[in-house]
Amino acid sequence: MRPDTRLRHYRSLYGNSGAMDLLYTQIRQVARTEATVLLEGESGTGKELIAMAIHQDSPRCDANFVAVNCGAIPAALIESVLFGHEKGSFTGAGSQHTGYFEHASGGTLFLDEITEMPANMQVKLLRILECGRFHRVGGSQEIAVDVRLIAATNRSLQEAVNEGFLRQDLMYRLAVFPITVPPLRERGNDAELLAQHFLDDLNNRAGTRKQFSRRSLERIRSYHWPGNVRELKNLVHRAYILSAGAVTLHEPTDASRRPTALINGVLNFMVGTRLVDAQREIILATLKHFQGNKRKAAEILGISLKTLYNRLREY
User: Where in the chain is the domain with CATH 1.10.10.60?
Assistant: First the structure.
């Protein structure tokens, strides 16, 4: 019997693997409830799409779905952005501002990169989850909201708690229904099916009939996809633009990094290696040497733990 090459999907999520079937089942199970959901998974795995699918299948589907990236908001502004502020509450507050919690009332609020939220804000978030009420910055009136909260992180939950990025009581409150999002490398032949799906979409939009070269298909099967579905989609798009006929997909490491050797704990770089590439190899080799202990690696490298996490997220 030939394997099924038709790409199954659930809302905006695509994949045929058993890991994705389990994910689809979990979405269906939790969507019709009011449970708070915590998504744990690597960058590029589609956590916002999962949150949106939960919202679309919930009784709140006709209300707002509001997505917020906590890591993209300066710490000094996050309280105002989430809860709003009153006119004159601080310099530059020329009018009243409604925050994301009020915008999402009756619907769903998705807080991505929840571990980037400052500790004092995590305390306030915990209170809202418990009583559904808050004050705008500079305001005295208590405001009630009805929000279904979905949070996400690309860190290990227990590591985030142990290293002080997430309050333990908040983790328990958020993880009423935790979902672990599978990385692309653990999804069987989904990478090949997804790549073809992205190429078909580009062909349909441009009226072309480009196909992958055999070499590209081999690379899709063998590459470990650290950037997951986002990386795959971007590489397919780039290869499509550059190709005149057969679409040849190149691993990002082919052109961006020079050979590096690790011998007896010593890294050897070729003359001309870019500083950013050398820094990447040093950080990853140090982390591997200390068996993934990020706190120890950061200490030896002379950087903060947060800086190390930021570098790893970039890589």
Answer: 257-314
Residues 134-176 have pLDDT tens digits of: 888 887 788 889 999 999 998 888 888 988 899 999 999 999 9
Could you tell me which residue, 107 or 2, shows the higher pLDDT?
A: 107
Give dist(CA 270, CA 315) in Å, integer: 20
CB-based contact 216:32 (threshold 8 Å): no
CATH T-level fold of 187-255: Helicase, Ruva Protein; domain 3 (1.10.8)
> At 135, phi and psi to the nearest 5?
-115, 140
Q: What is the pTM assigned to this prediction?
A: 0.78
What digits encode the pLDDT tens for the residues 245-281? 889 887 654 434 444 555 566 777 766 677 777 888 8
The pLDDT value recorded for residue 230 is: 93
For domain 9-182, give the fold. Rossmann fold (3.40.50)
| 301 burial via Cβ count (<10 Å: 0-12, 13-18, 19+) | middle
DSSP per position, 70-130: GGGS-TTTHHHHHH-B-TTSSTT--S-B--HHHHTTTSEEEEESGGGS-HHHHHHHHHHHH
Q: What is the CATH number of domain 257-314?
A: 1.10.10.60
> What is the spatial order of strands in the sheet that 37-40 belongs to?
65-69, 108-112, 148-153, 37-40, 177-180
